[in-house]
Every structure is written in C-alpha cells, then in structure tokens.
Amino acid sequence: MDDQTPFFNLFDLDREALLALLAERGHRPFRATQLMKWVYHRRVTDYTAMTDLSKPFRTWLETHARFDLPTAVSDQKSRDGTRKWLFELVDGNCVETVYIPDGERGTLCISSQVGCPIDCRFCATARQGFNRNLTTGEIVAQLWLARAALDAEGAGREVTNVVLMGMGEPLLNFQAVVHATNLMKDDLAFGLSKRRVTLSTSGIVPAMDRLAEVSDISLAVSIHAPNDALRSELVPINRKYPLREVVAAAKRYIGAERYRVVTFEYVLLAGVNDQPEHARELARVLRGVPAKVNLIPYNLVEGIHYQRPGDHVVDAFRAVLQAHGLVTITRKTRGDDIDAACGQLVGKVDSRRRRDRIAKGIE
Ligand code: SAH
Fold this sequence. Notes:
Blueprint: E1 8-9, H1 15-24, H2 30-41, H3 55-64, E2 65-66, E3 71-77, E4 83-88, E5 94-102, E6 105-109, E7 113-115, H4 124-127, E8 130-133, H5 136-153, E9 161-164, H6 174-185, E10 197-201, H7 205-214, E11 218-222, H8 228-234, H9 243-254, E12 262-268, H10 276-285, E13 291-297, H11 311-323, E14 327-330, H12 350-359
Parallel strand pairs: 1-2, 6-9, 9-10, 10-11, 11-12, 12-13, 13-14
Antiparallel strand pairs: 3-4, 4-5, 5-6, 7-8
Helix pairs in contact: 1-2, 5-6, 7-9, 10-11
Bound molecules: S-adenosyl-L-homocysteine.
S-adenosyl-L-homocysteine is lined by residues 118, 120, 122-123, 165, 169, 200-202, 222, 265, 267, 296, 298-299, 301, 342-343.
C-alpha cells in the first residue's frame, strides 16, 4: 500500500466510486457494503468501532480515509418547526440547510454551491455572488448531519424527502450533485426513493439532458415567467436557454416514462408576473407537458424591491391554471421568521464573523 496516498473523504464517494477505489487498492468488494452500512445506517465514523472489518482493512482506513464533516455554526428553529443550520466548511465558507416538517413528511432543503452564479433578480442568494461548488461530501454531509441532529432531538422527526433547492444551481455542479444524489438513493446509504429526491434548476438545458442519461431523480424547473421577454429580465440565464427550450428539455427528461411529472416553480411577484393573463400564457406554454405547478408567493428579501402579491391574487392565478387542467399548488411559506424560506438563504456568516472580529477588537 502506498503511504504517500493523500487521505480521501469517504463522503465524496458513491458506491461505484468506493468500489472502484477499493478494487484499485486491492480490497474486496464486500468491504464497501460493510463500510457503507456502518457509516450510513449505524452512523458510525470511528473505525475502531467497526468490529466486523478485518484489522488490516481498518488500519488501511485509518491511514487513508477520513470523514470530513462541516461544523454547524448556527442552528435555528422557526415558530413553525422549520429548522435551519448554517454549516461551516473546511475552508471557512458557509452554506445553509433547511428542514421543513409537514405532518409525516420531513423535507430537507440542501445547498449545492457556496453562493450562486445565476443572477435571478429576486433571489437573496444571487446577491452574494458565486464562490465555489460544493464537493459530493459537502452535499451529502448536510443530510448526514441533519439526520443525526433530528435523531438526537428524539422527537421522531425524519428526513423523508430531499430537495436540492437551497443555495446554488445544482446543474452547474453536475458531477458532485449526481454522486451525492446517488448516495441519497442508495439502499446502503440513505435509501430514499427517486421520487423523494428532487433537483431544482433554473433551466440549464444541456445539463438537463445529461441528467436524464445518468439519473432518474425528480426534476423541478424554476420557470417564473410565461414568455422570454419577462423571463430574461427575471432569470437572465433565459437569454442563453430560452423558455421553450427549457420546457422542451423538461419534457425530454420525462421521456417515455409517463409516471414522472416535472414540477415548475413560479415565484409570484406583485404586479410583475402575477396577473391572470400571465397564468393563461403559462398554461399555453405548458400545454402537453406532464407538469405540476408550484406557486411560490414571493418571500421578501432585504434590499430587493419586489413585493408579495395578496392572497386573492395568488388564488386567482392558481384558479386560471387549474381551469386549464394544470395541477397547481401554492407553496406554504415556512421558516420566514428565521430567513429560511425560499430565496432567503445567504449563508449569513460575514456579518457574524465581522461581529466576532469587532467583539475581539480586531476591527
Ligand atoms: N438554482 C436552482 C435551485 C434554487 S431553488 C433554481 O433556480 O431552481 C430555490 C427556489 O426558490 C427557486 O425556484 C427560486 O427561484 C425560488 N426563489 C428565489 N428567491 C425567492 C424568493 N425571494 N421568494 C420565493 N421564492 C424564491
């Protein structure tokens, strides 16, 4: 065994990658099964406790494999039970992860990038700019840590669904996101069904097609406007991948498997895209697509001028879509008192750090 080999982070490897690595280093394939069960089912990361592993394999792990986990630097609970963690990564960057309990369901909203390069006009994450992609391990760790924290709480809450709807554009971090979602679906890891793992994209058309080739997770598309003029204004990436191409790619993603539907997310901005004629135009754009529409009344962001429409406007918009046969739901606002609602995630660490520095007299 080569002692020069740098340590690898086990959370970076999906089953296929782990098997390949073990084969390359002369370890038998069943070691992958044993190891994954310890880590993901029993949540043990101390090799000495992994009693069914051979001594030489444990020694090899000790000298080659690590479990890198971010640190929770804050853990907030909303009035409505929504919980938000701020995780600090090894390089000091921070991302946010949100848990949303709803009856039997528990949805974990995960980040895929530090910041975001897609400049959606209404989104808080966009305003902080883009810093870097998360690694597979950093994406997976959000789920691993959330499950551990919920277990420790002892209230019987579980993560039943994962949505890649936190900070970042997941399809611009393709490989890491695919590997992470493989682990989410793997029975040896988190064992979630493909219907319970959803990736949300602003519409990166070529990556949507690539995803269809390598994965079967559920897809959500942030559409937000029924025509190119308005969409290009709100979601500037529309100039590169226009509306009709995005909708066509969503349709291709469903392919022949008719049981899949694509969710279209539509943030409702008062007086901008919330009128009945917008709804009628949207229904025309989505005609023939097995689609579900998720309306998100705008969550206010400090420093951004958009407003949330009144409930009657939201209801009227939904009624038009429903009259056109589109399954439409209005997303309940959750966790807004702790800035955990859609579009409010910013990994607010700078101001906190700054406060610390000021407190320590450094600034
Ligand atoms: N970049 C991906 C993943 C983010 S998902 C995407 O765009 O799909 C987060 C969802 O919340 C997106 O649909 C986004 O457009 C929406 N959103 C952003 N800011 C919002 C806000 N202030 N209020 C409500 N929804 C918002």
